[in-house]
Write a structure and sequence with these properties.
Length: 356
Amino acid sequence: STLFRPADDYGLTLIIGGAEGTLWEISSVYSSLARRAMEKECRVPSAVKKEKNAPIRMKNISPGAAYLTLEALLEVKRPDIDNYWRSFAYAQKIAWKTGTSIGHRDAWAGGLTRKYTVGVWVGNSDGEGKPEMTGLTTAAPVLFALFNTLPRSAWFSPPLKDMKTVTVCAKSGYLATDLCESIDILMPRSANFEKLCPYHTLIHTDQSGQFRVTGDCCPESEMRHIPYFVLPPVEEFYYIMSGAQYRRLPPFHSDCQNYNSAEKRTPMSIIYPPAGTEVFVPVDISGEKSMVVLKAAHSVPESTIFWHLDEAFIGKTKNFHEITIQPGTGEHRLTLVDEDGYTVARKFKVIGEDAQ
């Protein structure tokens, strides 16, 4: 009832809570997710169906999708000592999430078990914001304190009639190939998996496995063919930042002079600005235009990248590929060249106060 504005006003921020909601409605969404996950097992009583404030019915989410969503919400990090809940035999599974409004005006937490849904709102009656008022620090502790007073309940059973088993690559989630370490996962029957994992490939190394080689510098009989998980530079950058285990590609052997022709991927990418971006450069309180931080990723971080803006050299980076500029308004072309001659380029547009 609170979603009264046109869809374009909310945009994609609706996914992460960019809209108004009441505590009852938000709690009802959680409750309805649980009901949907159990739909194959039980029927909603007719009295509930006719009730004015009955929970929202989710018709477009399958029971399998609802169950997997609840499984994902189990992994949300709990506050304080509750974060170690898996270590305690008496702990129960709770699917939950928090929210904090813009300006820290109020804080939210919602969670559920098979039997109970709990919604928590924390805030001031006059709407005054407080920096320390976040969902995790204020609403979540109340949520788990309430669950600790409620009777325990078993976890949801997977709605197997609405699910299927899919063999996927353990690292990428795409359909597994012969090069992948694979796992079997449950997915909704309506889920569509078509693409094989594009990130596992065979690389050719010398007998030590320390250097890549090509047919120009190493006989086939002396090569080793090793399955490797190889991400594009940007994905690799964020994958490593997340703390995941990742083996970078070994360098080419010094005897392989023509390795550039064997390298089918560009080892660097521009992270910021993204393609098609309009960059707004505001004026700060001193009246000076702010700076723009350009960012790139290279699969060999110690490589040197030479930066050019509109054909003019603006600097070079090594290890940490960020550079600060103060561009004028209008169209620009950013070109990056590494020490091996690989080149990437991107056009972007700068808008600012002087463009209005």
